[in-house]
Amino acid sequence: MARFATKPKKASAEQFVFDPSKVETGRKNFSTFGCANCHELKVGGKRLDSSNQGTAKTLSKLDPNKGCLSEKAPAGLPQYDLSNEQRIAIRAAISAGPPSKKQSPQQLIIQTMATFNCYACHQRDKIGGPESTRKTLFATSIPEMGEEGRLPPPLDGVADKLQTDWLKKILHQGAQDRPYMLTRMPAFHSVQVDQLASAFDKRDRKSEWEARKIQAPEHRVKAIGRELVSVKALARIKCHTFARYPATGIQAISLTQMHQRLREDWFARYLLDPQEYRPGTRMPGSFVNGVSARRDILKGNPDLQITAIWMYLQDGEKAGIPEGLLPDPIELTPREHPIIYRNFIEGTSPRGIAVGYPEHVNIAWDANDLCLKLIWHGRFIDASKHWRGRGQGKQSPLGIHVMKLEKQVPWVIHSGNLEQWPHGTARERGFRFVGYRLDNKQRPIFMYRHNQYEISEQFIPLPRGKTEANLKRIFKLKAEKNNPAEKISFLVASGKKVEIDDDQAAVIDDAVRVSIEFPNTGQTGKSGKYRRIEQNGMTYLVMEINTNNGQVEFTQLIDW
Over 185-229, what HEC string results? Predict the structure, then answer.
C-alpha cells in the first residue's frame, strides 16, 4: 500500500463532522492526487478520471534513482515502504527494458513467479524461498518432520513430478495436499497461471522410466503392490496416511492420492533415489544401489516392484488397506471351522453374509439378491467397525484378490429362448430366501426357492498352496414336478469381457476362470451349449439346465 509524503499534521481529537462544502475539493483531490490511477470511483454513474493521465513518463525515460524509488520521495509522490533489496530489483528491471514479446518457457516461468510472488515461499533454480527473517513464521503441526513439514516444497522439476491437471488444480484452487503444513497456498484465478503450467511442462517434463510387464493377472499384481507398502515389506504406511487412516509415524501425503497427483515416470525415479529429487528428505531409500530391501518379492527386481506398487495405488481409496495400518482391529480368523459374519459388508446389500474358511478363502453371499457377490483370498474381516460403538458404515474385506462376481440371482425361469438377461430384483422375479443350514464341518448351505423349484448352493474350498484356495460351488435344484413346463437357465459367467478357453472354461475380464461339471456323469459345460447375450456393454454366458427328471446337481469351479 502506498502512502503520500506530506508534512505531518497535528492529530485532532475532534469528532468528524460532515462538511458539504469540501465535497467538491475532495473530488478534485481524488483526481489530482493520482488516486484515480488505481481506484475506481463513480459519481452520478460516471467514473472519475485522473487529471494526471498522460503526464507520467514512460518506464524507459525514468531515472530509477529518483522519484518514488528514492529513499525519501518528494512531496506529492507516493512513498513506498520498500526494502533496499526491493529497490535494487525494481531499478534492475526498469534498466533492462520491456521483456521480449516472445518469451522462452524459462523467461515466462521467472516473470510469472515474480509477478505472483511465488518466490516468497518456493525456491526454483536456487532463486527464492522464505527469507531468513520470515522463515520462523512457517509452522507445522508435525514438528518432527523438520523443515520438510513446514516449508513449501521447491518447484524444481515440478511439472516432471505432478500430473498437468493436478498442477492446474493447485494453481487455481490452492494447495491442500499437506494438511500438516500450516502455511496455505493461495488460489490464482488467472489465465497467466495456465501459461505457467504449460511453461513448467515444456521446461521440466522427462520420460526416463518404462513400466515393466508382470506376467500375472492384474488383481494379483495389485496384491503384490499392497504387500510391498505394508508394514511387513517396504513399510510406506509408517509415514504416509491412507485415506482416512493415519500413518503409524509421521503423517505425510496420503498414498491414495498419489495416482492422481504424480506422474508414474517421476514416481518410479523418486523411489529409486529420493535424495536426488529432494535433498534432505526423510523419505528412506528402499532400493539402495539398485537392490530392493525385499528380495523375496518379484525376485527383488526394483522395476517390477515399483510397477506393482503403482498399479495398486491406481485404485485410490478403493484399494485394499495395507496390513499393519488398522488401529486396534478385531480380526476374525477362521482356524478349525468357518466363521460366518452377518453385517454390513462393502459390495453387498444390507443382508450380506460373509463366510471365512480355514483354507484362506472367503466369500460374501447376498441373502437379498441371492447370489455370490464377493470372493477373496487371505485374511477374512475386521469386525471392529461393527462391534464397537454404534457399528455404522460398511466393512471391506481384509484379504487380497477381492473380486466381484455376480450382481443378482444367477437363475432365470422362462419360456422360449432367453434373449435378454432380466434386470429385476430376485424378489420381483419370484425368488425367496429360505435360510441356510450347516453341514458336518459347519459350512453353510444357502437355500432359496422359486414357485415349484427348490435351490441350494454350498461352497467347498479347494486348497491351492498354503495361503489360498479355489472354490467348488455345488448347486442342487429340485422341481416339484418331474416335467416342469417352464425352462430354467443358469448364469455361468458375466462381465465386460467373457471368453472361452481351450478347456471350455469361461474367463471373466481376464481375472476369474469359471467351469461347469455335472457329477457322476462326466459331463461338463460345453461352449456349444452356452448362450451368449450381449447387453448394455456386458456379456452374459447362459446355460439351459435339463430338469426332465425333476432334479439336477452340478458344480461350478471358480479359480482366480
Answer: CCCCCCHHHHHHHHHHHHHHCCCCCCCCCCCCCHHHHHHHHHHHH
